[in-house]
Request: fold
Amino acid sequence: MSKRKLSLQQQRRMTKQRIKTAEQPIEGLSAGLVITNFGQRLLVEAEDGAIHNCAVRQHLGKLVAGDRVFWEADGESGRGIVSAVSPRYSELTRPGFRGQTRMVAANIDVIGIVAPIEPGVHPDMIDRYLVAAAQLDIPVALIINKIDLLQTDDAWDNLAEILLPYDEMGIDIITVSAHLADGLDDIEQFLNQKTSVFVGPSGAGKSSLINALIPDLAIRTSSLSSATGLGVHTTTNSILYHLRCGGDIIDSPGVRRFTPAPCDLSELESYYADFAPYLGQCRFDNCTHQHEPDCAIRQAVEEGDIAETRFNSFQGMRQAFTDPSKNSGGQKHRDKIK
Reply:
């Protein structure tokens, strides 16, 4: 049987579909930044700041807030078509239905771990985010929100004790109250000229912080919703906003929990900076620091050189990676950075 020949139109379409990723400008295409994804379409910000409602070539897969793309105007519809995407240098994902990975945000430079005074600052949660960020070598800041709820010296002392291990590791700690607009200048300095994302548990006040950082957020959200043509309550995916300090922040309402990608024992150890002085000093090379004799890590914990909370979070992750059934929340609720 002879091969069926392609028409000129089909050949042109096939040529365009071979354009998947590109780092340099492409002739005939304009550079753009994905602001949000809604269904099968994107809102793309052009270099002049205008927002365009664009379709996306199917071969590009899922594109999300933070993606750098190349697009062209669609003369027939008056909208646009995204034909290529620049390679990502980082991406935030979470599991979707039936074990599929769902993209949340792309090209993140820094992560703000938001830990609230209420319902509580939990070291295990913080450590999971720290390990996930370390896997990509992404800088982090620990943002302690709702400090207006600290009413006594004892409450401040208890918080200082929880945060001491992170302060000793040199992690930036920013105390803030979105309610009182206190500490926002420090956050803006951390986010300046970067693409960032806030992560943290439900009730941490991430949305309140973003509203405090972007006073006209409601107006911007309404404008973006109008651009989609779907109304003001339809955008549920991540959205990128420009900050007045010059950076960008991606609001990701779908991220509730966060567990780092599974790794082996030696890799997990390397992500605990406070373990570094004691690694290699245990009697056994494959020491799990759980029950083996002459364990340098456990001895450091007993002597107060490693915080017990840090040791406990390490053991919890080690066991979860060995036996996924022990992972809090299970596979269905695992969020991660890639």
DSSP finds nine helices and 14 strands in the chain. Residues 153-168 form the longest helix (16 residues).
